[in-house]
């Protein structure tokens, strides 16, 4: 220690930047000088970049350019990310905020960052903010409410690429309204785009595209796209062949393509130019047939985080990031207790033809996710998988019966001789018990949402109200 004391501050700062986080925290306790130096922003900027972003850990907290984060924020985000990484999945559930016996909650939606979320109560949206406080309990603030123009049960979809942008429309009623809203504490529920009548039912939103499920239309339909940025009425149709594809399940944007997941297969489409008027029918590039039919819930993960945006750091054009794989987890249609895994793996250069626009192959894996409640096991009751939430890092949660469990990142075997990172479903003691719901076996699907960066989930309660649960 005497040798370190003789060094000038600039050299000590460089030493702190190279030490692991636990060593920095230990050194901080030894003297006032080290305490002050260990609080400098340049130290925690380096720690955050090298031990969180460079290691592909999910960045905790609301999305913000790294260059704008304070020293305190960088330190707290770094410590939270490392804590979750070191303890996952050996974590327990701790309720940090709750609201009891309110109106029935049909859907809960976390905004990226885990500090803001929405509850959908019939045709009303309520915007909540979790106020940070010292200790394990947090405060809860109601920011605003929004009521739909029609007295119908609503559904919300969020744009994961553009934090704070959501779309809302009727949950089941086809040919209803659609609104694109932005969420912020200063201007909640500001309208970005509004349609009084759209075909089908809202399925998702991504960048400038509003995606609508029109498979319930008499002619079969498919997934129909509107350009809400341009606010035009023209659409691009990603068609469905009902007898071959089955019903619509979900979609994901991956490797500059739209992957539409149907019950029997997955069709791959280029991201289309949406016409200003009329309808353009888009031809698929490839179709992958599933080993067996799937149903909701479904989740996607690339097992690699997006990192934090920074306007001062630009990726070189000569070295674009090409996704290596995509894992699709979905409930089997024939047996609701089973979760199927499908992995899209990029082909090697030798296997890729010049005309192949989407150079990936689909490999099927299967895993059984059975509940372990004593009474269910004794009675040999097969429990239904009702919810799957996976983050981009591979972490997530899933619900089987009433039991909420964790998913972690692990190695999966791909026949005949490959290994691939993918989600591993934990089968030990349940982390949390959901309320028992009556009616639809998939009713829990919209009743829970997960934020991988903060390691917390929000759960709607059967008698009204909700809980926000932190993993500790």
End-to-end CA span: 34 Å
Oligomer: single chain
- Please give the order of strands in the largest beta sheet: 10-11-12-13-17
Structural class: mainly beta
What is the CA-atom radius of gyration, in angstroms? Answer: 24 Å
For the largest beta-sheet, the strand count, sense and barrel status come to: 5 strands, mixed
Instruction: Tell the overall outline.
Output: globular
What share of the residues does DSSP label as strand, in percent? 35-45%
How many runs of DSSP E, i.e. beta strands?
30
* Uncertain ranges: 309-320, 371-380
Write a structural description.
Strand 23 and strand 24 form a beta hairpin. The chain has 472 residues and is mostly beta strands. The chain contains eight helices and 30 strands. The protein is 14% helix and 40% strand. The longest helix has 17 residues. The protein has a five-stranded mixed beta sheet, with no helix packed on it. Helix 2 runs parallel beside helix 5 and helix 5 runs parallel beside helix 6. The relative contact order is 0.12.
């Amino acid at each position: 220690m005497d040798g370190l004391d003789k060094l000038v501050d600039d050299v000590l700062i460089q030493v702190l930047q190279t030490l692991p986080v636990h060593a920095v925290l230990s050194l901080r306790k030894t003297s006032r000088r080290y305490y002050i130096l260990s609080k400098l922003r340049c130290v925690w900027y380096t720690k955050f970049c090298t031990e969180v972003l460079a290691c592909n850990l999910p960045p905790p907290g609301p999305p913000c350019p790294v260059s704008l984060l304070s020293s305190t924020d960088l330190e707290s985000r770094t410590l939270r990310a490392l804590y979750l990484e070191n303890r996952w999945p050996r974590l327990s559930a701790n309720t940090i905020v709750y609201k009891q016996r309110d109106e029935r909650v049909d859907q809960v939606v976390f905004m990226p960052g885990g500090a803001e979320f929405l509850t959908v109560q019939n045709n009303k949206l309520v915007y909540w903010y979790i106020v940070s406080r010292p200790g394990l309990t947090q405060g809860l603030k109601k920011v605003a409410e929004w009521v739909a123009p029609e007295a119908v049960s609503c559904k919300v979809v969020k744009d994961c690429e553009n934090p704070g942008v959501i779309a809302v429309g009727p949950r089941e009623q086809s040919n209803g309204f659609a609104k694109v809203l932005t969420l912020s504490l200063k201007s909640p529920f500001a309208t970005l785009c509004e349609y009084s009548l759209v075909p089908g039912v809202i399925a998702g939103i991504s960048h400038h595209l509003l995606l609508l499920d029109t498979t319930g239309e008499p002619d079969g339909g498919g997934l129909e796209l509107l350009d809400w940025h341009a606010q035009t009425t023209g659409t691009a149709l990603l068609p469905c062949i009902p007898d071959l594809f089955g019903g619509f399940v979900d979609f994901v944007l991956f490797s500059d393509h739209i992957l539409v997941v149907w019950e029997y297969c997955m069709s791959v489409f280029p991201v289309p130019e949406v016409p200003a008027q009329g309808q353009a029918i888009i031809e698929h590039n490839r179709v992958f047939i599933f080993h067996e039919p799937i149903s909701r819930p479904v989740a996607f993960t690339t097992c690699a985080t997006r990192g934090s945006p920074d306007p001062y750091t630009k990726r070189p054009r000569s070295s674009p990031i090409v996704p290596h794989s995509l894992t699709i987890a979905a409930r089997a249609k024939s047996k609701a207790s089973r979760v199927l895994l499908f992995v899209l793996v990029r082909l090697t250069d030798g296997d890729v033809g010049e005309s192949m626009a989407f150079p990936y192959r689909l490999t099927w894996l299967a895993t059984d996710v059975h509940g372990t409640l004593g009474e269910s096991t004794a009675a040999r009751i097969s429990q239904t998988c009702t919810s799957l939430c996976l983050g981009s890092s591979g972490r997530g949660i899933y619900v089987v019966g009433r039991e909420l469990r964790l998913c972690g990142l692990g190695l999966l075997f791909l026949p005949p001789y490959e290994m691939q990172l993918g989600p591993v479903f934990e089968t030990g003691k349940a982390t949390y018990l959901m309320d028992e719901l009556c009616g639809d076996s998939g009713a829990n699907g919209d009743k829970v949402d997960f934020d991988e960066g903060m390691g917390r989930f929000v759960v709607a309660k059967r008698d009204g109200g909700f809980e926000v649960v932190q993993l500790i």
